[in-house]
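A.,

Following up on our hallway conversation. Structure tokens first:
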């Protein structure tokens, strides 16, 4: 009889475990205080910390979604904040949105075009929240001018991957673009910077900051500089950007460092290039297009990036994250890309 009771109890325990909910499984995994990469599918990951919440922004279904969560490693509550219109310059090819909290409002910078492929129509648009709530409604603030003659908007030039730099009470935009408008998307990409009059209006002309001219950012079928992202430490300012080809395993990241923080940011000689500062390996392929966040308790720095799912050329990618350190000279040390399935300690303060 006792043997039968034991057997029944074992069977009930097995059934209970087999019916474990997703939340319960999550708790079980968290007892180890670890997680593994990749954290989810996707590309061009943009994660930002605001008021102890993590805001994630991404494109899906020709629109833009955001989520907010108390945890870095989970998306949390999701809302679609914008859907591309049926007509107009931005009706298709919605790429790489970023969301920034500026002057009490949320601003989303995204690339879109009339059609593609070929992807020759990409320009940059801006959305603005109606309140300081990231889940509020958003209004379309139009298309940014990213060419050389602001007086003639018809001369606008291809642009993607715009990010925002706030520095010494001034606002700047940095993006990837073409020297001039072309009829083929097999066109070299460069990094440009421009001061902004406000979060939806450029001020003056663009300045080219970087071209793919170093040995480690050239050598493939198409040399690219794209996906610029801002990283700060004290007075030090860095632009971490992607180079080589996004569809190949050689995709990697380079760095521009602002030499004189009190100098002119629009002077290319005030920026020093080095790299590669982060690249793939035999187990992690084609790392690129990152964002940076602090851990929940603000004691750790983390890089969030995407990588290719296979060696086959293409854009099947997933999102990963890992902590990084700083060198004695104040530059970032991203270390080695951590293979999928290897346990990583949860961000400090995330339980």
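Then the amino acids I'd put at each of the 351 positions:
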């Amino acid at each position: 009889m006792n043997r039968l009771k034991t057997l029944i109890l074992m069977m009930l325990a097995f059934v209970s475990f087999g019916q474990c909910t997703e939340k319960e499984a999550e708790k079980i995994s968290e007892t180890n205080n670890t997680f593994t990469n990749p954290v989810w599918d996707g590309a061009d990951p943009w994660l930002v910390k605001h008021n102890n919440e993590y805001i994630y922004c991404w494109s899906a279904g020709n629109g833009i979604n955001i989520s907010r969560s108390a945890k870095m490693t989970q998306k949390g509550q999701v809302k679609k904040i914008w859907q591309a219109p049926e007509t107009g310059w931005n009706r298709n090819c919605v790429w790489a949105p970023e969301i920034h909290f500026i002057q009490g409002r949320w601003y989303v910078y995204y690339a879109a075009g009339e059609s593609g492929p070929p992807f020759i129509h990409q320009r940059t648009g801006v959305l603005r929240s109606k309140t300081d709530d990231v889940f509020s409604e958003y209004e379309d603030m139009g298309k940014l001018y990213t060419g050389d003659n602001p007086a003639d908007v018809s001369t606008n030039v291809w642009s993607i991957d715009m990010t925002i730099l706030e520095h010494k009470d001034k606002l700047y935009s940095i993006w990837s673009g073409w020297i001039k408008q072309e009829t083929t998307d097999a066109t070299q990409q460069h990094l440009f910077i421009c001061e902004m009059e406000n979060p939806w209006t450029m001020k003056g002309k663009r300045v080219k900051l970087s071209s793919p001219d170093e040995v480690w950012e050239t050598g493939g079928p198409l040399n690219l500089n794209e996906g610029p992202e801002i990283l700060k430490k004290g007075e030090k300012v860095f632009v971490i950007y992607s180079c080589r080809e996004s569809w190949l395993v050689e995709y990697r990241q380079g760095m521009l460092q602002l030499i004189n923080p009190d100098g002119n940011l629009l002077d290319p000689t005030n920026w020093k290039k080095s790299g590669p500062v982060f690249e793939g390996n035999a187990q992690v392929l084609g790392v690129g297009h990152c964002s940076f966040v602090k851990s929940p308790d603000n004691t750790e720095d983390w890089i969030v990036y995407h990588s290719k799912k296979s060696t086959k050329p293409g854009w099947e990618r997933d999102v990963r994250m890992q902590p990084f350190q700083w060198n004695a000279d104040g530059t970032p040390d991203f270390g080695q890309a951590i293979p999928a399935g290897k346990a990583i300690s949860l961000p400090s303060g995330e339980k």
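The longest strand covers residues 92-102. Curious whether your intuition agrees with the design.

B.
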